[in-house]
Design brief:
The structure is a single chain. This protein is of the alpha/beta class. It has two domains: 175 residues, Rossmann fold, CATH 3.40.50; 129 residues, N-(1-d-carboxylethyl)-l-norvaline Dehydrogenase, domain 2 (Orthogonal Bundle). The protein is 52% helix and 14% strand. The strands form two sheets. The protein has an eight-stranded mixed sheet, sandwiched between helices. It has a two-stranded antiparallel sheet with strand order 3-4. Helix 8 packs antiparallel against helix 9.
């Protein structure tokens, strides 16, 4: 069985490592020629996943056509801002009528659509699915126990992907709610920035718990308005991923919030690393969708003001605390 992983960031590399460790042949598409040379020479990804050796059955290539040729399943793991251009560029080489899985947790920054919507537009004959859940790339690459969700409206395809992509250590659950799984995966990054801001201000664990809980309420409100099932947000792609990203030491989004709370500029923090904090790019899309759906998202609104309007984090907190008190289920 041959699989293709499109994108050699930390998550794409981790998935390729996991799949190669299970004995499958994996071709990993690497966009940057310099990184491709380094991977070929060192058999690891020193830019995005240093210290983790690639299994022998993982073959890196700079030609997307070579990566996709003969693949029975394609996994796309590129940042959301590049997702559409990469998929459209690779579209002629995608295998017809075979599954394509989005492993990207984000929304298109221009049209605010989900990644599986972009895949369906570009490859209408292929069944598409979303892979999400509480998954730090390094832990998956190291083979540490992980549970995630593969979502597809076709139950047969979902169960097939569960078997093809899963393992004992990488336990996959199936779900038909693609909308909920993708919205949960995208918006939890915004809430992780919020908790980073809170932690950076030294507001305490009560405040962090409140932000996570009310953040989940915001995510659920928007997701349900867009057609998701509320139960999805009580699962791995909802509360599971939210808790991990808001509290975990490997969370890029939380780290960005911590740095901004310490007085640093967002652009300065982002410029220091090749890693992308998807939550920054998700905020505008989340707020645009919220306006369309007539949904209130106060935490997202304040995080956006801090990151893009230079609003002081303490002032944003004060505005959240001064909101009118209401029912918890409102």
């Amino acid at each position: 069985m041959s699989l293709a992983v499109v994108g050699a960031g930390s998550w794409g590399t981790a998935l390729a490592t996991h799949l190669g460790r299970t004995g499958r042949e994996v071709r990993l598409w690497v966009r940057e020629p310099e990184l491709l040379e380094l991977i070929g020479r060192t058999r690891e990804n020193p830019w995005f996943l240093p210290g983790v050796a690639l299994p022998p059955r993982v073959i890196a290539t700079g030609q997307v056509e070579q990566a996709l040729d003969g693949a029975e399943v394609v996994v796309v793991a590129v940042p959301s801002e590049f997702f559409e251009s990469v998929v459209k560029g690779a579209a002629p080489a995608f295998p017809r009528r075979l599954p394509i899985v989005s492993a990207t947790k984000g929304l298109d920054p221009h049209r605010h659509v989900r990644m599986t919507e972009l895949l369906t537009e570009t490859c209408p004959e292929a069944p598409v699915a979303a892979l999400s859940g509480p998954t730090f790339a390094r832990e998956v690459a190291l083979g540490r126990p992980t549970a995630a969700v593969v979502a597809c409206t076709d139950d047969g395809v979902a169960h097939d992907l569960q078997q093809r992509l899963g393992s004992r250590e990488f336990r996959l659950y199936v779900n038909r709610d693609v909308v909920g799984v993708e919205i949960g995966g995208a918006l939890k990054n915004v809430m992780a920035i919020a908790t980073g801001l809170s932690d950076g201000l030294g507001l305490g664990e009560n405040a962090r718990a409140a932000l996570i809980t009310r953040g989940l309420a915001e995510i659920t409100r928007l997701g349900v308005a867009l057609g998701a099932s509320p139960g999805t947000f009580a699962g791995l792609a909802g509360i599971g991923d939210l808790v991990l990203t808001c509290t975990g030491s490997l969370s890029r989004n939380r780290a960005l919030g911590l740095a901004v709370a310490a007085g640093r500029k967002r652009a300065e923090v982002e410029a220091e690393t090749r890693m992308i904090a998807e939550g920054v790019r998700t905020i505008a899309s989340a707020l645009a969708l919220a306006r369309q759906a007539n949904v209130t998202m106060p935490i997202c609104t304040q995080v956006g003001s801090v990151l893009f309007d230079d609003k002081p984090a303490r002032e944003a907190l004060a505005d959240l605390l001064s909101r009118e008190m209401r029912r918890e289920d409102a």
